[in-house]
Amino acid sequence: MRNIFAVAGIVIKELYRRKDFYVLFILTVLVCLIMASVNIFNDKQIVRYLKELCLLLIWVSSLVIAITTTARQIPAEREQRTLLPLLAKPLTRTQLIFGKFLGCWLACGLVLLCFYIFFGALAASRDHAWPLLNYFQAALLHWFALGVVVALALLGSLVFAAPSSNSTICFVIVATSLTVGRYLDTVALSQAEPFRSVLYAVYFAFPHLEWAFGMRNLIIHDWPLVDWGFAVLLILYLLAYTAAFLVAACLVFRRKPVN
Amino acid sequence: MTSPRTFFLTLVALLVLCFGLGANLQPKFQSFENARHQSDNFFSLLLGDSSRMFANSFFIKADAYYHSGYYPTIFDNNEAFKTPHVAEDTGAVNSKNQGEETSFMGPPRDWIDAFGRHFIPNRHTHLDEGGATDDLSTSDNVREILPWLKLSARLDPDDIQTYTVTAFWLRRMHKEKEAEQVLREGLRNNPQSYEILFELGRLYKESYDDTGRARNVWELAARYWFNLSPDDQKENRLILEQITTNLGQLETDAGNWPQAMNWLRLAQKISLTPDALQEQIDGIKWKMSEQPSPLFLISGGAFY
Amino acid sequence: MNVILKTEKLRVEFSSREFRQATKVALAGLNLEVNAGEVFGFLGPNGAGKTTTMNVLLGFVPPTSGAAYLFGIDVRQPIARQRIGYLPEMTYYYKFLTAEELLRFYAKIFSLPRAETDRRIDQLLKLVELEHARKRPIKSYSKGMQQRVGLAQALINNPDLLILDEPTSGLDPLGRMKVREIIQRLKNEGKTVFFSSHELGEVETICDRVAIIHQGELKTIGRVHQIRESYPTLEKAFLNIIGYQPQPAP
Questions:
Q1: Longest dimension (CA), chain B
Q2: Do C93 and A258 touch (CB under 8 A)?
Q3: Among the four given CATH numbers 2.170.150, 3.40.50, 1.25.40, 1.10.1740, the one describing domain B214-292
Q4: Residue extents of the structural domains in chain B
Q5: Which of C15, C83, C103, C106 to mutate to test the interface with A (most CBs of A within 10 A)?
Q6: pTM value > 0.90
Q7: Contact call for residues A181 and A146 (beta carbons, < 8 A)
Q8: What is the ipTM of this complex?
Q9: Digit-coded pLDDT (tens) for C26-81
Q10: Among all residues of chain B, which has the CA nearest to that of A39?
């Protein structure tokens, strides 16, 4: 475990020494503050459009950070030849994969913490309310959804040659899941075979990240907390997919030449 | 090897060419009809005619907010949402809604669908009736639909419904000044709009209790309606009924009974409930017989 | 003599991705033994199989057949690498880290206690003369400084066996001298050094024994003075052993 945490620590250091997070955070803050300054019929208590915009930017930024950070981990190690002195140490390939995953995932967690604190402050400035438990639940499910994305991107970085192609494919898969994932079975019904079977297979096999994404609407419109039993079930579901992608990544990496 | 002088002269020549072409093309561009650059609306300038598509989306968004996010998508059964409820509740539009509005998603299709419904809004509510919390003290939250209505109006200044719906809800929130501003902006963009005039009249009557201005504006609205082609009149009978019944009521309250009866008879011709209007007319006749009122000249035979 | 490094009929084949291309044999049954405390030179022309041998020893490449052992442990076990240090030919490290952070990271992988880590870092940075740059990110280092960081990370766990792949490659004469001094110092401490190099003059100076391989086969192994017995220099011996025939003058 120490090796895994050591590798994770390096990934987190890399994140806060690169500019990506700061640029996205500042952009989010700027856009939200500009939108907050718009006068809407002299009513200073209107807040939901701001919450929606902020949460959308948080989701987009977190996905960008998760995918781009993870997609370049192993390829950059290979390209910069830092993989050789690393694997020459008593560190297994499995530990390296788990270390990279943990680092990227924890880094995403830190990013989410900063973003959600800003979101809470922005909402409270108009709402004068702090539904902390609701925000915590949404952020937690968001974080576990990002775990699936990170694991997927890590697997992709071992399968695809270039980080850019891996990132593009991951973005397409995630965007499809978030927007139409819920309705693939409905779309499948209107298709002819064999496309119908393919869509059904995708519908049942692929991770339904839109469940965590849908929490946004509950936060925006002040719906009560989701029952914690269902939230825990969702977390377990997301963890299962994360584990599956990680195991696949370990299996692929074992067969890959290092240099 | 080419010298710096050659580079410089080439650059100057290219700049002169660009300037000359620009000066030559500018008058041609200016003369394009309906050119976007002539618009003073930022969104029209940026998006052109596609801003109307966005305008409709944002109007629907306002309705989605009205329902606290519980709203059908293109994949769901949206028969009960063909006319947005934010507009339907104003009472001033022809509603096309049918079917059950509380269960557009239908029963869960499989375990994935069933599980996923725990993480999205899953109950039909209206913001002005307490919204997701069912707490009537939070009914003020209907203000949350306003940004989308405002944006929709900006993106499509020609959509009259946006102004009337916005004004209706602003009035409900006791923001009369803002409602008037919206309607006047709508009139600037749509000078002949009887719907906006009708809504303006309602503002004067119900919020300011200014019956004189309400009457003027409603009569103007009726005149504009009669300027429509016969086909357009057939499509827009509801609004005339509302204008004439409101005028009838206004004149009844003011004691101008013959005028009131004229308006009510006009409304009766196009109303789906003529019997109710007949009752009102009979009521006025009875009052007239009990208490004769001063005669007012009926202006404009064009009203018949 | 205690055998630290051993290969037994080590064979490595790479199958070609090209259609109808034969499999390339990188190593053909290599038998090698390196004893504790000696400085062992591993020589051969380019493409002879030196780097492949090192890759097998470090667990980067699995052997097609045969076996390799470090301290008696099969190289496929990660624990075999607990007591070794490795300096690759081209040294690149995490550019966003400082030298100190890099060494601390590698020390964690070796599970060194914190106090020991601090002591080792100070000692090594002094040894490789990078104390003045310990807080600067590695991306600001020159090639020579990066090579020295590489040497420091190879020594962080106080290894009993040091595997160096062309340690003086790209260094100026002063840098090469320093590397030679470090290798000599390690030998005096009883460490074993296994390195490959094209600088035969250096090999002649510091190595106890050398092995020469060519086209995946071990051509000769023994003490330096034994190998170059009949030749004026080690270079001539090397050329003769690999079968180099000089072209007659036109």
A1: 110
A2: no
A3: 1.25.40
A4: 43-191, 214-292
A5: C106
A6: no
A7: no
A8: 0.90
A9: 888 899 999 999 999 998 888 888 889 999 999 888 889 999 999 999 998 888 88
A10: B147
